[in-house]
Specification:
The complex is a heterodimer of chains A (62) and B (139). Chain A is mainly alpha-helical. Chain A is 63% helix and 6% strand. Classes of the chains: A mainly alpha (62), B mainly alpha (139). The A-B interface holds A 9-10, 13-18, 20-21, 24-29, 31-33, 37-38, 40-41, 44 and B 1-2, 5-6, 8-13, 16, 76-80, 82, 135, 138-139.
Chain lengths: 62, 139
């Protein structure tokens, strides 16, 4: 699954570690999400969408 | 721009790592103390049944270490839990492979007193190597 997490994070000037703290996950997980190695669970995807004020489908594309 | 920042750990990462290290250190210190006590006072080659109790005494801190790993699994997030599960599955496969190999070799007369420790070592080594590789892969 593709996503624009890196771009959204860059827009806010956040590091991976800062985003990890916002979402209460590890930096390793943020890196895996951004590089497409890992697809998040639905609760985490909702949390990401809520944090950036977007719809899930705006952030994650199949 | 954020490449330098991207290699640092988050506050949550550090808190989880500290908690794991602290609990693990308690287990290791207890293990060393118990082993010391067994060596100093445990008459492992004696005649009585007490020697079995002494020999099994290090299991107490070992069980604590199992609890520590379990607590760590509960603390990590969904991706890290997935990685951990994969590492533990590979470690289990390595232990099964080594134990079956040693078992088959024993049919041919090869008897190894240290066989349980070789099996244990194979599992721990596999887990450790995969944990390092997974950690490096996410930098």
């Amino acid at each position: 699954m593709n996503n624009c997490l890196r771009e959204l994070r860059a827009e806010r000037g956040w590091s991976q570690a800062q985003l990890a703290d916002e979402l209460d996950v590890s930096r390793q997980t943020i890196n895996a999400l951004e590089t497409g190695k890992f697809d998040p669970s639905l609760p985490l995807a909702f949390k990401i969408a809520e944090l950036f004020g977007r719809k899930i489908e705006d952030i994650f594309q199949p | 721009m954020t490449s330098k920042l991207d290699t640092t750990y988050s506050r949550g990462d550090r808190a989880r790592a500290r908690a794991y290290a602290r609990e693990f250190a308690v287990g290791i210190v207890a293990y060393v103390l118990v082993i010391g006590a067994v060596i100093a006072w445990g008459d492992l080659s004696g005649p009585g049944w007490q020697r079995y109790v002494w020999a099994l005494l290090p299991l107490i801190p070992t069980l604590w270490l199992v609890v520590v790993v379990w607590r760590h699994v509960q603390r990590v997030d969904e991706y890290q839990r997935q990685l951990l599960l994969r590492q533990l599955a590979a470690a289990f496969a390595a232990m099964v492979g080594v134990s079956v190999t040693l078992g088959l070799l024993s049919f041919a007369g090869l008897s190894m007193t240290l066989a349980p420790w070789i099996i244990y070592g194979a599992g721990m080594l596999t887990w450790g190597v995969l944990a390092i590789l997974d950690s490096r892969g996410s930098r």
